[in-house]
Amino acid sequence: MVERRAEHAVKFFYSHLFWHNPGVRDLFPVSSEDMERQRDRLFAALTHVISRFDDDTIGPYLHDLGRDHRKFLVRPEHYAVVGSSLLAALAATSGSAWTPKVEKAWTEAYQVIADAMLAGADASEDPPWWDAEVVRHLQYGQDIGVLTLRPHAPFPYLPGQYTSVSSERVPRTWRTYSIGNAPRPDGTVDLHVSRIDRGRLSTALVRETQPGDVLRLGAAGGALTFRRSDRPVSLIAAGTGWAPIRALLEELADRPPDQDVRLFVVARDGAHLYDRPLIDAYGTSCGWLDVTYITPAPGRHRNEATERLATALSNRGLWPDQDVYLSGPVQFIDETARLLEELGARPARLFHDVVPSGGRGHDQPDRPLGFGEWFLNRPEPHWLNPSARAPKEY
Ligand code: HEM
User: Fold this and answer.
1) Which of 216, 310, 342, 392 reaches 20 to 30 Å from 36, CA-CA?
2) Quick one: what percent of the chain has pLDDT higher than 70?
3) C-alpha distances in Å from residue 296, one per residue of 11, 275, 311, 330, 382
4) What range defines the domain where residue 52 resides?
């Protein structure tokens, strides 16, 4: 019943929350555009978690979510006020279906969620976020930036994971970006950022951020990490989905594998393979690596890259034996995974950060974050920018 009137429920929820607790508004993004997005995100997450209550993955998810909410400056007492506003919104939207029994069930369910999140926040030994100084900013054309950051404290992550990022330039807005390198001795991390039209944070990161700026990083997350096995490996990347694949490749190069590794790098045209020199160097120096670049024919639409990828994947074969790591825009992952399964790849050996179809991921081109973000309809990410040239260094 509430889903059918979701927009009304969401507006009710936030109006109720901010009217009764004006200070809580300060925790949320300043811009009304970002706030619109957040309306979907938080409320959808609350209702979605409740609807999946019996799922085994919910416990760990809530634990991490609570840990991560510390970076939004959420304090324990906020859980009660969010709970009252949620219940008020549900009551107002459910009409006669809101019986004492239903109210009791929702109250208890919310309490279980809040307790799990609070326990996650309490148990964490990590800081709420990591301050990290920008030490280098490479810009490729108008829309791609690779930022090298030096976290002030050790920042733990595995190759292939992502982090959430926030900048003073767009206060209280957090978006996720993949980390484009395996851990380095100097602790620096590279973020590959693709600018989204009307995406205030991605625009600030690609076009305005400079060395010396300090960004905030949330705890690393994501499951696109390398599974050592004796099976051959295929890595398939599109756009800035190259970032986690590059991190995996660095990990492989560090402990060269016995099996063959095939790398497919897809871009909207040859000028936009922004890391091509590095990929070429890997191709030359690593005997176990076979590199294929996929771009549309000159002057053809970028979708043709996907068609060419389909042809290349069909020609290469041996898919039933492969462990396949996929990274790129959501639609690209969906389509490529489907094709690979048709070609015989085993679904259990196709690794990517999971996105249910029907929902668009988060505001970034790389991959989704949490349940709430599945509900967001964000603009289609850029693959790569047509006017990209040699990197510009600041
Ligand atoms: C109790 C259940 C709650 C659930 C299931 C929930 C869920 C979520 C999810 C999934 C996100 C997006 C995650 C991300 O961007 O990293 C989020 C963001 C956020 N939540 Fe919660 N949340 C809960 C409670 C609260 C409470 C009590 C507050 C305090 C007011 C709060 C404030 C925020 C803020 C400020 C954001 C970030 C806004 C942004 O990035 O635009 N949440 N929440």
Assistant:
1) 216
2) 85
3) 44, 18, 12, 19, 15
4) 3-123
